[in-house]
Design a protein that fits this description.
- This protein is an alpha+beta fold.
- 29% of the residues lie in helices and 27% in strands.
- The protein is built from 8 helices and 15 strands.
- The strands form 2 sheets. Strands 7, 8, 9, 10, 11, 12, 13, 14 and 15 form a 9-stranded mixed beta sheet that branches.
- Strand 3 (29-37) and strand 4 form a beta hairpin.
- 41% of the residues are buried.
- The structure holds 4'-deoxy-4'-aminopyridoxal-5'-phosphate.
- 4'-deoxy-4'-aminopyridoxal-5'-phosphate (PMP) binds at residues 33, 156, 182, 185-187, 206, 208-211, 244-246.
- 4'-deoxy-4'-aminopyridoxal-5'-phosphate is lined by residues 33, 156, 182, 185-187, 206, 208-211, 244-246.
C-alpha cells in the first residue's frame, strides 16, 4: 500500500487522523474511489473534477489544486508500483473541537490510500446478481445533494444491510418520490427493447464516472440511451438490468424483488457493454 497525507507520502504507522477530525466526528468530508488499470489512473480528470466540485459544494477549501493533486496521485501510483489497484482519496474538514462548527477546524485533512481492491467474484459477472429495493431512501437533493460524494453514507449502509438481510449483496434505493435512484454504491441501468435507460441526475443520484463511461460506450456501440425517470415497474419489466461503479465495473442484475429480469441471465446488451468496458480499461476478461 501507498499512503499520502497532508502533502507527503507516509508509512502505515503515520497514516492516522485525530479523534477530533470532523470527518470522523460528523462525516464532514468528501471522497473518491478510483481504479488503476495497467498502471494508469482511470478517468483521473473526471475524478478530480468531481472531488473539487464536491469540496466547493460543501465549502471545503482544499489545500491543493487539481493539477497538483493529480501529480501527487500519479507519483503515488508510481510508488505503489503495481499495475492494478484502487485509490481512496479523502478530504475532511480536519481537526476541530467537539462542536459542529467547521470554522473551528484549523486545516482540512487530505489523504489518499493506494491499495489492492477486493473484486466481486467472477461468478457475479457470469450469472448476474439478485437485488432488492431498500426501504432506506436516497437523500433528497434539497437536504444534501447526492451529487456531492460526501462521507455521509449511513442511509446507503442501512440499505446495504437490508440487502444482506434479504440474502442479496446490493439494494436499489428510491428517492423521496418513490422513483429509482441508484444502488448503495453503484448506478443502475435497464435495457428495454434494445435501448438503455438510467435515472437522470435530478432523480437524486451520484453522477457516477462508470455511468458516464457506459453512456459514452453506448454511443460508440450504437445502443440508444436516455437519462430518464424510472419506477420499480420499469425495473421489474426490463429486458435487462445492470449496475455500474468504479469497483464493480458492470454487474448484471437478474432478479429484482423476486421478479426475474429477462431470461434470468445477463442479457446481450449488458454483455456487449461489459466487454466494451473491459476493452477500454484493458483488463482481461475471464468471464466473457
Ligand atoms: N452511486 C454511489 C452512491 C456511489 O457511492 C458510487 C461510487 N462508489 C457510484 C454511484 C458509482 O460511481 P463511480 O462510477 O464514479 O464509481
Amino acid at each position: 500500500m501507498t499512503v499520502y497525507m497532508n502533502g507527503r507520502f507516509v508509512g502505515k504507522e503515520e497514516a492516522v487522523v485525530s479523534v477530533y477530525d470532523h470527518g470522523l466526528l460528523y462525516g464532514d468530508g468528501i471522497f473518491e474511489g478510483i481504479r488503476i488499470y495497467g498502471g494508469r489512473i482511470f478517468r483521473l480528470a473526471e475524478h478530480l473534477r468531481r472531488f473539487f466540485d464536491s469540496a466547493k459544494a460543501i465549502l471545503l477549501e482544499l489545500p491543493t489544486t487539481p493539477d497538483a493533486l493529480g501529480e501527487a496521485l500519479l507519483e503515488g501510483v508510481k510508488r505503489y508500483g503495481r499495475d492494478e489497484g484502487y485509490i481512496r482519496l479523502v478530504a475532511t474538514r480536519g481537526a476541530g473541537d467537539l462542536g459542529l462548527d467547521p470554522a473551528k477546524c484549523s486545516a482540512p485533512t487530505l489523504f489518499f490510500i493506494i491499495d489492492t481492491i477486493s473484486l466481486y467474484p467472477e461468478e457475479f459477472y457470469r450469472k448476474g446478481i439478485p437485488v432488492v429495493t431498500a426501504s432506506s431512501r436516497r437523500l433528497p437533493a434539497d437536504g444534501l445533494d447526492p451529487r456531492v460524494k460526501t462521507l455521509n453514507y449511513l442511509n446507503n449502509i442501512l440499505a446495504k444491510v437490508e440487502a444482506r438481510q434479504a440474502g442479496c449483496i446490493e439494494a436499489v434505493m428510491l428517492n423521496q418520490r418513490g422513483e429509482v435512484a441508484e444502488c448503495t454504491a453503484d448506478n443502475i441501468f435497464v435495457v428495454k427493447d434494445g435501448g438503455l435507460a438510467t435515472p437522470a441526475p435530478h432523480c437524486g443520484i451520484l453522477q457516477g464516472i462508470t455511468r458516464q463511461t457506459v453512456l459514452e460506450l453506448a454511443v460508440r456501440e450504437d445502443v440508444p440511451a436516455r437519462e430518464t425517470v424510472l419506477t420499480r415497474f420499469d425495473l421489474y419489466t426490463a429486458d435487462e438490468c445492470f449496475m455500474t461503479g468504479s469497483g464493480a465495473e458492470i454487474v448484471p442484475v437478474v432478479r429484482i424483488d423476486g421478479r426475474t429480469i429477462g431470461g434470468g441471465r445477463p442479457g446481450e446488451v449488458t454483455e456487449k457493454l461489459r466487454l466494451a468496458f473491459r476493452r477500454l480499461t484493458g483488463s482481461s476478461d475471464s468471464v466473457g
